[in-house]
Amino acid sequence: MAADSVVVAGAGQAGADTAAALRAKGFTGRITLIGDEPGGPCDRPPLSKGYLTGAVAPEETVLRPPSFYAAQDIELMAGHRVASVDRDRHTVCLASGLRLPYGTLVLATGCRPRTLPVPGASLSGVLTLRGTADAEDLRLRLSGSPKRVVVVGAGFIGLEVAATARGLGHEVTVVEAQPRALARALTPVMAERVVTGHRDAGVRVLLGREVTALYGDGTGRVRVMELDGGERIAADLVVVGIGVVPNTDLALGAGLGVGDGIVVDSHLRTDDPDIYAIGDCARFPSPYAGRHIRLESVQNATDQARCVAAAICGEPAPYTAVPWFWSEQYGLRLQMAGLTAAPDETVTVGDVAGGRFSVLCFRGGLLIGAESLNRPADHGITRRLLAAGTGPSPEAAREPGFDLKTFARPPAPVRGRAPVQERQTTPV
Prior knowledge:
The protein is of the alpha/beta class. The chain has helices at 13-24, 50-53, 66-71, 132-142, 156-167, 188-200, 249-253, 298-312, 376-388, 394-398; strands spanning 5-9, 30-35, 74-78, 82-86, 91-94, 99-101, 104-107, 111-113, 126-127, 148-152, 171-176, 204-207, 211-216, 222-227, 232-234, 237-240, 244-246, 262-263, 275-277, 282-286, 291-293, 324-329, 332-338, 345-351, 356-363, 366-373. A five-stranded parallel beta sheet has the order 3-2-1-7-19. Strand 22 (324-329) and strand 23 (332-338) form a beta hairpin. The relative contact order is 0.12.
């Protein structure tokens, strides 16, 4: 056992930020960062937007240059994968057979895209989007002449790809099995406004429809999608964005608790006090949800990385970050603060028709979050209010002339929820 060494399994945003935060906190031991993407840690948000159009160059998606890891004495093992964990011996075994000791192990194994469980899903031209290789494949396919693109899934990834493809001049159809778009992430008011933006841009959006089969041509390329009821849609390219599956195999093999993610406590520790789990793969107790949840977002990954790095350096604290998230489609800036998918009351403020409004979400009379479209000030204020545990009542928000800016400097917490540090979160 090497008590002064940290091994990070997974070199995405959470893993890379853990390594960087450890050095920033003054950790002097050995840090090994292991990830299976050959290019090393990358910045994922541009992959469904600017990367596909060419506005973001491949080198701009690199989180940090190789010189950073060398300068920080962080051993980056890109193109490698941790295959198993031996908790008794405090070692990890790589797929290559190499064994490494650890004092503390951080699991930042991320997620993988769900695949479409229908006949024809393995045809050429049926893609998912997660890493840089996926994005490069999709970028090349979208760079040619106009194509018939079908996006399966009206979540954030699917709709961002749809907006980008439409902006490149392709004929785009979105097929969603749920009766509305973004059902797990947004209120109906905001989700409907997002769908309206797509339809105004010329995207065909089909809600409450199931894909039953895909058919190809003689070369094995996808050409037709069949929906429930027998309707057929011509398709040159199918992008599947129907959610992700957390990578928990490593934790399961090590005998750690797993349930739609690697289960951790409020300090992000697994059943084993020497093993943490963070980022998209971690299922943690959220003070905002009142239960264990997973959050798939850059800010959640970054904040959990900092939380774990502090704990390893002797400064443990519960993870209490305020969830927040953003998306951009057709130049519209959509921002969410808190967990807004299941309020029992909402108040809409601003100009819905003009595309500048916020939906304030309440539960039991307390502000639990806000969704803002082109109202960045509302987003920032809501994050501060949530961190302070205060905010307007729904009755106050309905008053004529109500302006959230009057709460820009919130008073001390008065409503029973402990103040929390301003951090972030995301919808999952």
